[in-house]
From TrEMBL:
Organism: Candidatus Shapirobacteria bacterium CG11_big_fil_rev_8_21_14_0_20_40_12
Keyword presence, Cell membrane: yes
Protein name: Multidrug MFS transporter
Location(s), subcellular: Cell membrane
Keywords: Cell membrane, Membrane, Transferase, Transmembrane, Transmembrane helix
Nucleotide-binding found in the keyword field: no
Family: Belongs to the bacterial sugar transferase family.
Pfam families the record matches: Bac_transf
Source lineage: Bacteria, Candidatus Shapironibacteriota
Annotated Bacterial sugar transferase domain residues: 10-209
Molecular function GO terms recorded: phosphotransferase activity, for other substituted phosphate groups
InterPro entries with a match to the protein in the record: Bact_transf
Broad class of where this protein is predominantly found: membrane
Membrane-spanning residues: 12-36
Length: 215
């Protein structure tokens, strides 16, 4: 009964919260879309592989494009990006100096503006406002090989929906390696607290403004 009430309350918060978020950020979304269009050719939204959601279900995470077109495929197939790909894997699938990022992209990534379209993922029930990071399938596979002690933690993380924001995002975000991130995500999955969700939501604006740990 407790889990049922938690899930119902969380879903209601997700629906109303994402609606409010879309209304508040609609002017920002418009300006961002125009800026992306002017800054570089390509689509407004990022064309990236699907992410892993609750129970291992794959979905397309919506983000404003912050990189050059076809950036993901280029990283994995273009010989010019071979060293960058190696660095990408070694640094827990995060790059602090990525040449694929556009000028506009650098700004919107720093302040998490690229994440705003994920409110639509929340509305569709694929994500929650608060939850673990939505990982790529290959990322989870490779990182579990690198950190074998995280296998059980990943299973726990996949019992809940990924979030637009979360515990590790407001606690250093990309400055935290995978093993620490997944540990924090698993702790969140065990906790299942509406009060804790609200605390994370209140901390998120400061993380967006300061851009701490963003890449």
């Amino acid at each position: 009964m407790r889990n049922f009430l938690h899930d119902v309350c969380k879903r209601l918060i997700d629906i109303f919260g994402s609606l409010i978020g879309l209304v508040i950020f609609s002017p920002v979304c418009l300006v961002t879309a125009i800026a992306i269009e002017i800054d570089s050719p390509g689509t407004i939204l990022a064309d990236t592989p699907k992410r892993v959601g609750k129970n291992g279900n794959l979905f397309r995470l919506l983000k404003f494009r912050s990189m050059i077109p076809n950036a993901h495929n280029l990283l994995h197939t273009d010989p010019h990006f071979k060293k960058l790909l190696e660095e990408y894997k070694k640094s827990s699938y995060k790059l602090h100096d990525d040449p694929r990022v556009t000028k506009v992209g650098k700004f919107i990534r720093k302040h998490s503006i690229d994440e705003v379209p994920q409110f639509l993922n929340v509305m569709r029930g694929e994500m929650s406002l608060v939850g673990p990071r939505a990982y790529y399938p290959f990322e989870l596979e490779e990182q579990q090989k690198k950190y074998p002690n995280t296998v059980a933690l990943v299973k726990e993380v996949l019992t809940v929906k990924p979030g637009v924001t979360g515990q590790w995002q407001v606690s250093g975000r990309s400055e935290i390696n995978f093993d620490k991130r997944i540990e924090m995500d698993a702790e969140y999955a065990r906790r299942k607290s509406i009060v804790y969700d609200l605390i994370i939501l209140m901390r998120t604006p400061l993380a967006m403004i300061t851009g701490k740990g963003a890449v």
